[in-house]
Design a protein that fits this description.
Strand order of the largest sheet: 2-3-4-1-5-7-6
Order of helices and strands: EHEEEHEEHEHH
Largest sheet: 7 strands, mixed
Number of domains: 1
Structural class: alpha/beta
CATH topology: Rossmann fold
Shape: globular
CATH class: Alpha Beta
Low-confidence stretches: none
Number of strands: 7
Distance between the termini: 11 Å
CATH architecture: 3-Layer(aba) Sandwich
Radius of gyration: 15 Å
Helix content: 25-40%
């Protein structure tokens, strides 16, 4: 089976440490864990691929802004229409560093997922990484586009070790 694993984030150094970029952090953790080759730039994405447990896996970090992530996924979907797509993204409705697997569902206001829905529809696998929710519901945009506090960052980095274990289990199943 061909897997396409997409980590969501915003491109560029200015966004690298933001809460919205934990999907990119997850991709880097998987690339290192599975010892895949260095990232290559192709169209609107950074890509790397390899084989894990006899499963072909392609990792993708869209290089569009979050709300246009579907533009980077569309060519992959056209080339691999029968692949199993999994999207890793930040989740406001989970405590910081909590990880949950979900199949299908709504985008719930996440603009990256909304964009991917236009390509894949709502029925793809997801791994949600908790980033907490700000106390002020009107501050969400500002909140996701800012860096973690040092203690939160450490929790997120530790959760990425659990994520690699989860992914090892998923590709074996």
């Amino acid at each position: 089976m061909q897997w396409i694993i997409v980590g969501l984030g915003n491109p560029g150094k200015a966004y690298a440490n933001h809460r919205h970029n934990v999907g990119f952090w997850a991709m880097d953790a998987l690339q290192k864990h599975w010892m895949f080759p260095n990232w290559i730039s192709k169209k609107e994405a950074l890509l790397t691929q390899g084989v894990v447990e006899n499963q072909k896996i392609l990792l993708c970090c869209p290089q569009t802004y979050m709300n246009l992530s579907g533009q980077a996924v569309a060519p992959l979907y056209r080339h691999y229409p029968n692949a199993r797509f999994l999207v890793i993204h930040d989740e406001l409705d989970l405590p910081c560093a909590e990880i949950r697997l979900k199949q299908g569902g709504s985008a719930r206001g996440h603009n990256g997922l909304k964009s991917i829905h236009t390509v894949l529809g709502p029925d793809y696998d997801r791994i949600r990484i908790g980033i907490d929710r700000p106390a002020d519901k009107n501050a969400v945009s500002d909140y996701v586009l800012h860096s973690f506090h040092p203690a939160e960052r450490e929790k997120i980095l530790a959760s990425l070790d659990r994520l690699t274990d989860i992914m090892d289990s998923l590709v074996r199943a």
